[in-house]
């Protein structure tokens, strides 16, 4: 009975980053036509916005679509209604992640989570661990295969001094780790309080 | 008028002196053109050159001036002498700018220029300076038919400009459609919220205006005359009739909503909870800012669905084919009636394309901001169950066959049907049928059509204005807003084309200006649009007339009536001076002082046609002065070269081309005739509506004539040329010249 | 007197990381241009464009707020300058949202307090190319050129994040000219091609390699077809994706690309007379031989 009612739209407005813009979409489709990964979206942004307005909560939040965003910002600069589409897509992805509705093994979700965990740990991204983490996300055997496939790239980077195997043992990071962690913990607390899932 | 004295002036400026032998041109004017006074000048349009001409007019009793310089479209102020007849031999755009500047081209270029001088002098001999018609009508009052927002606005605008107004309203109160509204769509920045209608304000202004005489409960039962002298019978409900003399008329009779009873599939008539936009306004008026209740049981309204394009934009031929251009705005406004009262009410607008004219985009955005849901979709049906409805539709974004259930109220946006009175074309058809056999059915049909008339015009072409499309009384949606095809009668508001209130008010202001313009022109004996200022008007030689009625039937503006003996009666202030009557007349008795069969015919004959063996064909171009001739000028400005064998004569409209021009040209040994006019048909561009279409029809009959003369049909061809055809028109000429070369020279030379 | 900026180098520029050559050449370039970069002490990752998968709005914004707060504390009165497109974008976006919303600013400061910091929003967030264009200008930049990059045909690959959504120097998003102007200023020829602002796949080059490599292929193909013998970019992720994956692209699409991808900072260093090692040309996977030759002359 919630079809084309405002209930899900209101949830998005309250819980999703920049979600209050969704109602302003005028369905022109410029975003869909501008996206470099356009053909790979099951539902382009324009459709996602309409689905939200049509009350299709599960379909939207469990969709693979917003994970196709490459953050190129093409949709933002072209949107005649100036919707921050990139951010809304990120926001929907974050919200879906938090609700645990993301399709299983969504690669960008997995990589993004890895990236976040990686940077949270020491305050800076460790590219070696990030790549290895990605290769081994589907288990050890697959990881070795993945790593072997990219071996030449890795060796080239090492030769050019742009990948350091020693990073595996420590590496770069912020020095004020405790302050950094306390800060993020606090930020997360406030975030949780403000955007508690419905 | 004093004796004719022709003076010819040859300009040497703009390169004419270098490219042409102007002394030879002067000699042509003198010897062949019989100009009494011939002068060359290095820079004719400068102050000194113009003064020289003025002095000659003053001191030498010159009556006709032939200016061999630039196009008639250039330097109109410098050469705009009002006390003599002026001819323009187009040597610049017509000769040196469209011909190559080479030694080889010199001979042909000079020949062209000499012909144009001959033509200018020949024309001069056949025209007179047009003088004001003494029978000028001078009434400056404006009649406004219809007392809605458009009519009231038109009346107030005309009054504020200093003109007396007579306002006739059918019902007992002013206000029309707007008086049925709770609020209107916003007319002021930030265009975010519904606003009060202007009815109270306009009504008060009219009541306070001593210049405006209002007739309520009244209709126009008879309208006779012409701009500056319309006699209008105003019949009142009481039965009395008064006659008012007015100079011009504005018809602002508005629209009716398309009948929602024709849409049973959308639930209308099946549930009290399905209403049209007028129905919703009535509910909102009754609620007066409070909660709008469900009609069926007075229950609370939680969900409202707006169905756009209900019975509109229909390609099946059942309902309205067009978009009414205002219902999207109205639905946003009506959704706000709910949202502003209670943001928790769900309002869904199901649209196919949202069309938000004017500042409607801001209003749409405001609606979105208030939480109105807009869904692109096509509603297939509305099912009424109990006190709610189910709206079945195809979501066109999600490609989903879906439904909104439990809607408490469904509003159908059914669109505007113009209140334009009698369809005179249908009436003509019925009257034609009645001529052959009269049946009660046909008689009833005729009576019904006549009974629907609003203006009850006493014109031979019918009691109301011609309709352009779907019953709207426009003459051209883009080029000539406010103009209708009845001079001095203007339509304003939704009777002219579908529109919202803001546009209607603007429209009414425009129509008021046209109504003022036409009475002023009529009082001076001048033409209205598009030959505004022209003083000439058609006259006919009664002894030669065969009473064939071609002129009265073909006049696109209904300017010509017939007297008891079926001779034409020209209502000069209704006339647009297009010359379509002149083109139509088989016995060539219709002419203007400054434009006639003779004035064109003598130009055709003045051209020197070389003999068959010269390899110099001659092609006559009759070019519409509104589009084709400017296109030729502009082509020349771009230095687009075209054949040196053409000789161009501008005509007022292709409708003014008499078939005698063509036969004269062919008999004189021309090898081909090109006629260039505007696009005709449904999306015509003819400035005189029907001129180019009529010309095309007449020329389709020329083939037989050609055959009898032993000529190929390619020797006469009609072309549609738009003002923008700057590159195309030289190409058309060159292609045609090549074709003539192929067919060979005319066998009729030298006879 | 050298121009002073509060420098935010970013994770990928660190020693042994994927754009360490960007930092090396930036340092050389700044030396030649008399620009002093004062690194923000103890800066942290900006969250980049992919952090949203794990971090919500406020945690991500707080990351940038911490960098700005540190900058305000240690490098007062200086603009924050980043070389990495994502670092710049994240910092500028965070600043915009913090300055736009009192609530956001208060929340971020509550979190920052835990690290003993405070965000005031007094410093502008700028990209290095803005410094070059706005503070130095093409004319002055051109005057210092010692070895014009004559004969080099370069495709200026602007990509996404220095271009959208903020843009540089008020230029068009569809066809920004600043990189081409810079190339021409240095004496090289800027190639006109149609993939100047096409996305390389960004972070999705890792998670969606197939889809991203199609993007990369289109970019390289167009540059190549229009006669470029080198691609230059202002973005470390663009550089990495377009250079590193050429082998993968060749395998996948049967192409034979081998086109060097460099940074503008490397071009400027060479044009200003710097050595190949100052320009970090040894950091190329695909050697920019023509540039190396010029540097060696």
Set down the secondary structure blueprint.
The complex is a heterotrimer of chains A (198), B (751) and C (297).
Chain A: H1 7-15, H2 30-34, H3 45-53, H4 57-61, H5 74-78, H6 85-99, H7 107-122, H8 127-135, H9 140-149, H10 151-159, H11 177-194
Helix pairs in contact in A: 7-8, 8-9
Chain B: E1 6-11, H1 16-19, H2 22-31, E2 37-41, H3 47-59, E3 64-69, E4 85-90, H4 92-96, H5 106-126, E5 142-145, H6 149-160, E6 165-168, H7 199-207, E7 212-215, E8 218-224, E9 230-236, E10 241-246, E11 248-251, E12 255-257, E13 274-276, H8 277-287, E14 303-307, H9 327-341, E15 346-351, H10 360-369, E16 373-385, E17 388-395, E18 400-407, E19 409-412, E20 416-418, H11 424-436, H12 440-451, E21 489-491, H13 501-523, E22 539-540, H14 550-554, E23 560-562, E24 568-570, H15 580-584, E25 590-591, H16 597-606, E26 619-624, H17 628-637, E27 646-651, H18 659-667, E28 672-677, H19 691-699, H20 702-709, E29 716-720, H21 728-743
Parallel strand pairs in B: 1-2, 1-3, 3-4, 5-6, 5-11, 6-7, 11-21, 13-19, 14-15, 14-19, 15-16, 26-27, 26-28, 28-29
Antiparallel strand pairs in B: 8-9, 9-10, 12-20, 16-17, 17-18, 22-25, 23-24
Helix pairs in contact in B: 2-5, 5-16, 6-7, 6-13, 8-9, 9-10, 11-12, 16-18
Chain C: E1 3-8, H1 20-33, E2 35-39, H2 57-74, E3 80-82, H3 85-100, H4 102-113, E4 125-127, H5 128-136, H6 138-143, E5 153-156, H7 178-185, E6 189-190, H8 204-207, H9 209-225, E7 230-233, H10 236-244, H11 246-253, E8 261-263, H12 264-271, H13 289-296
Parallel strand pairs in C: 1-2, 1-3, 3-4, 5-6, 5-7, 7-8
Helix pairs in contact in C: 1-12, 2-3, 2-4, 3-4, 9-11
Task: Give an overview in words.
The complex is a heterotrimer of chains A (198), B (751) and C (297). Chain A is mainly α and 198 residues long. In chain A, 56% of the residues lie in helices and 0% in strands. Chain A folds into two domains: 7-99, Orthogonal Bundle (Fumarate Reductase Iron-sulfur Protein, Chain B, domain 2), CATH 1.10.1060.10; 107-194, no CATH class. Chain A contains eleven helices and no strands. Chain B starts with 5 loop residues before the first strand and ends in an 8-residue tail after the last helix. In chain B, helix 17 (628-637) links the parallel strand 26 (619-624) and strand 27. Chain B has 751 residues and is an alpha/beta fold. In chain B, the strands form eight sheets. Chain B has a seven-stranded mixed beta sheet with strand order 13-19-14-15-16-17-18. Chain B has a five-stranded parallel beta sheet with strand order 7-6-5-11-21, with helices on one face. In chain B, strands 2-1-3-4 form a four-stranded parallel beta sheet, with helices on both faces. Chain B contains 21 helices and 29 strands. The relative contact order of chain B is 0.09. With 297 residues, chain C is of the alpha/beta class. Chain C has two domains: 3-128, Glutathione S-transferase Yfyf (Class Pi), Chain A, domain 2 (Up-down Bundle), CATH 1.20.1050; 138-296, Rossmann fold (3-Layer(aba) Sandwich). In chain C, strand 5, helix 7 (178-185) and strand 6 (189-190) form a beta-alpha-beta unit. Classes of the chains: A mainly alpha (198), B alpha/beta (751), C alpha/beta (297). The interface between A and B is medium-sized, with 18 and 23 residues.
């Amino acid at each position: 009975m919630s079809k084309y009612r405002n209930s899900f739209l209101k949830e998005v407005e309250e819980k999703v980053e920049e979600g209050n813009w969704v109602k302003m979409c005028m369905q022109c489709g410029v975003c869909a036509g501008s996206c470099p990964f356009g053909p790979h979206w099951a539902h382009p942004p324009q459709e996602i916005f309409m689905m939200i307005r049509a009350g299709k909560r599960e379909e939207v939040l469990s969709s693979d679509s917003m994970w196709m965003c490459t953050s190129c910002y093409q949709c933002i600069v072209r949107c005649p209604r100036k919707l921050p589409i990139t951010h809304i897509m990120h926001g929907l992805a974050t919200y879906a992640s938090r609700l645990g509705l993301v399709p299983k093994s969504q690669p960008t979700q997995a990589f993004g989570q890895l990236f976040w965990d990686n940077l949270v740990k020491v305050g800076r991204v460790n590219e070696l661990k990030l790549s290895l983490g990605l290769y081994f996300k589907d288990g050890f055997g697959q990881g070795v295969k993945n790593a072997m496939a990219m071996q030449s790239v890795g060796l080239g980077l090492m030769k050019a001094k742009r990948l350091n195997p020693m990073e595996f043992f420590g590496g770069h990071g912020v020095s004020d780790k405790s302050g950094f962690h306390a800060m993020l913990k606090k930020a997360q607390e406030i975030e949780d309080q403000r955007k508690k899932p419905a | 008028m004093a004796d004719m004295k022709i003076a010819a002036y040859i300009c040497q400026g703009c390169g004419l002196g270098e490219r042409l032998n102007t002394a030879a041109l002067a000699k042509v004017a003198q010897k062949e053109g019989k100009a009494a006074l011939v002068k060359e000048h290095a820079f004719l349009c400068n102050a000194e050159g113009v003064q020289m001409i003025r002095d000659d007019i003053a001191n030498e009793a010159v009556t006709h001036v032939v200016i061999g310089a630039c196009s008639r479209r250039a330097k109109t102020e410098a050469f705009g002498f009002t006390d003599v007849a002026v001819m323009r031999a187009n040597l610049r755009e017509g000769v040196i700018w469209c011909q190559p500047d080479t030694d080889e081209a010199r001979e042909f270029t000079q020949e062209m220029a000499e012909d144009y001088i001959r033509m200018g002098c020949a024309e001069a001999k056949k025209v007179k300076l047009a003088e004001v018609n003494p029978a000028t009508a001078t009434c400056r009052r404006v009649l406004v038919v219809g007392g809605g927002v458009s009519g009231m606005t038109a009346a107030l605008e005309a009054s504020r400009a200093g003109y007396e107004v007579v306002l006739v309203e059918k019902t007992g109160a002013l206000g029309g459609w707007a008086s049925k509204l709770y609020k209107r769509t916003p007319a002021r920045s930030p265009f975010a919220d519904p606003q009060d209608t202007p009815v109270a304000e306009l009504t008060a202004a009219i009541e306070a205006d001593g210049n405006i005489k209002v007739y309520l409960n009244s209709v126009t039962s008879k309208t006779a005359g012409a701009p500056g002298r319309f006699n209008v019978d105003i019949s009142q409900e009481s039965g009395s009739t008064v006659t008012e003399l007015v100079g011009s008329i504005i018809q602002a009779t508005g629209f009716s909503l398309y009948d929602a009873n024709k849409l049973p599939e959308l639930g209308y008539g099946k549930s009290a909870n399905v209403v049209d936009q007028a129905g919703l306004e009535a509910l909102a008026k009754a609620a007066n800012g409070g909660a709008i209740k469900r009609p069926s049981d007075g229950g609370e309204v939680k969900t409202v669905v707006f169905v756009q394009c209900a019975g509109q934009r229909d390609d099946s031929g059942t309902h309205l084919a067009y978009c009414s251009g205002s219902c999207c705005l109205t639905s946003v406004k009506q959704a706000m009636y709910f949202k502003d009262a209670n943001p928790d009410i769900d309002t869904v607008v199901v649209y196919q394309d949202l069309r938000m004219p004017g500042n409607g985009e801001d209003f749409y955005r405001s609606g979105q901001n208030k939480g109105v849901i807009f869904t692109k979709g096509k509603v297939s049906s509305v099912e009424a169950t109990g006190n709610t409805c189910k709206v079945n539709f195809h979501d066109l974004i999600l490609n989903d066959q879906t439904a909104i259930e439990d809607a408490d109220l469904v509003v159908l946006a059914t669109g505007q049907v113009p209140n334009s009175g009698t369809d005179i074309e249908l009436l003509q058809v019925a009257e034609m049928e009645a001529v052959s056999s009269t049946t009660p059915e046909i008689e009833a049909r005729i009576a019904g059509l006549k009974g629907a008339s609003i203006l009850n015009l006493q014109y031979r072409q019918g009691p109301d204005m011609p309709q352009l499309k779907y019953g709207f009384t426009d003459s051209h949606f883009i080029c000539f807003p406010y103009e209708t095809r009845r001079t001095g009668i203007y339509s304003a508001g939704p009777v002219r084309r579908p529109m919202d209130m803001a546009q209607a008010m603007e429209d009414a202001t425009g129509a008021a200006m046209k109504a003022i313009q036409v009475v002023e022109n009529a009082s001076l004996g001048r033409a209205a649009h598009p030959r505004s200022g022209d003083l000439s008007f058609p006259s006919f030689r009664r002894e030669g007339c065969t009473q064939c009625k071609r002129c009265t039937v073909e006049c696109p503006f209904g300017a010509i009536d017939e007297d008891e003996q079926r001779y034409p009666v020209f209502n000069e202030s209704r006339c647009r001076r297009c010359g379509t009557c002149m083109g139509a007349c088989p016995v060539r008795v219709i002419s203007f002082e400054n434009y006639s069969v003779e004035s064109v015919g003598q130009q055709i004959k003045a051209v020197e046609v070389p003999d068959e063996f010269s390899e110099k064909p001659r092609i006559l171009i009759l070019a519409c002065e509104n589009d084709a001739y400017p296109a030729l000028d502009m082509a020349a400005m771009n230095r687009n070269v075209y054949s040196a064998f053409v000789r161009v004569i501008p005509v007022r409209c292709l409708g003014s081309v008499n078939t005698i021009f063509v036969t004269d040209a062919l008999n004189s040994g021309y090898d081909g005739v090109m006629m260039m006019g505007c696009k005709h048909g449904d999306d015509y561009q003819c400035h005189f509506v029907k001129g180019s279409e009529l010309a095309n029809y007449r020329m389709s009959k020329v083939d037989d004539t050609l055959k009898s003369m032993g000529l190929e049909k390619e020797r006469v061809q009609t072309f549609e040329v738009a003002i923008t055809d700057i590159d195309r028109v030289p190409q058309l000429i060159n292609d045609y010249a090549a074709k003539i070369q192929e067919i060979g020279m005319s066998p009729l030379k030298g006879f | 007197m050298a121009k002073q900026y509060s420098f935010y180098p970013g994770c990928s520029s660190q020693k042994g990381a994927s754009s360490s050559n960007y930092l090396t050449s930036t340092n050389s370039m700044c030396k030649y241009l008399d620009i002093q970069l004062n690194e923000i002490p103890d800066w942290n990752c900006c969250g980049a464009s992919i952090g949203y998968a794990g971090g919500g709005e406020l945690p991500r914004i707080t990351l940038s707020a911490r960098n700005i707060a540190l900058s305000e504390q240690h490098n007062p009165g200086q603009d924050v300058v980043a070389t990495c497109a994502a670092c710049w974008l994240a910092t500028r976006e965070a600043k915009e949202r913090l300055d736009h919303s009192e609530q956001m600013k208060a929340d971020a400061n509550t979190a920052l307090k835990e690290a003993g910091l405070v965000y005031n929003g007094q410093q502008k967030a700028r990209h290095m190319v803005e410094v070059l264009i706005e503070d130095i200008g093409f004319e002055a930049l051109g005057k210092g050129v010692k070895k014009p990059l004559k004969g080099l045909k370069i495709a200026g690959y602007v990509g996404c994040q220095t271009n959208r959504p903020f843009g540089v120097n008020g230029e068009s998003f569809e066809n920004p000219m600043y990189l081409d102007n810079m190339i021409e200023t240095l004496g090289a020829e800027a190639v006109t091609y149609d993939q100047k602002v096409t996305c390389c796949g960004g972070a999705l080059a890792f998670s969606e390699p197939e889809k991203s490599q199609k993007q990369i292929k289109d970019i390289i193909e167009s540059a190549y077809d229009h006669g470029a013998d080198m691609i230059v970019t202002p973005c470390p992720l663009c550089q990495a994706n377009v250079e590193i994956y050429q082998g993968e692209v060749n395998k996948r699409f049967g192409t034979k690309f081998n086109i060097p991808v460099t940074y503008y900072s490397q071009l400027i260093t060479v044009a200003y007379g710097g050595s190949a090692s100052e320009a970090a040309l040894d950091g190329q996977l695909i050697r920019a031989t023509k540039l190396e030759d010029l540097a060696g002359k």
